[in-house]
Amino acid sequence: MKEQEFIQIIKSTLNSKYIGDDCAYLKDLNILVSQDSLVEDVHFKKDLITPYQLGYKTVMVNISDICASGAKPLYLTISLSLPSDTNSNFIRNFYNGAKDAALGVEIVGGDITGSDKIYISATAIGSSKGRKISSRSHAKPGYKIIVSGEHGSSAYGLELLLKGNPEFTKNNIENKFIKSHLMPEAQIEFSRNISENIQSDYAMMDTSDGLADALFQIAKSSNVNLDIDTTKIPHDSRVDMQTVLYGGEDYQLVAAVPESVLQKISGYTIIGDVKEGPFSVNFDGKTFTQIDDKLFNHFKE
Amino acid sequence: MKEQEFIQIIKSTLNSKYIGDDCAYLKDLNILVSQDSLVEDVHFKKDLITPYQLGYKTVMVNISDICASGAKPLYLTISLSLPSDTNSNFIRNFYNGAKDAALGVEIVGGDITGSDKIYISATAIGSSKGRKISSRSHAKPGYKIIVSGEHGSSAYGLELLLKGNPEFTKNNIENKFIKSHLMPEAQIEFSRNISENIQSDYAMMDTSDGLADALFQIAKSSNVNLDIDTTKIPHDSRVDMQTVLYGGEDYQLVAAVPESVLQKISGYTIIGDVKEGPFSVNFDGKTFTQIDDKLFNHFKE
Question: What is the ipTM of this complex?
Answer without folding.
Answer: 0.91
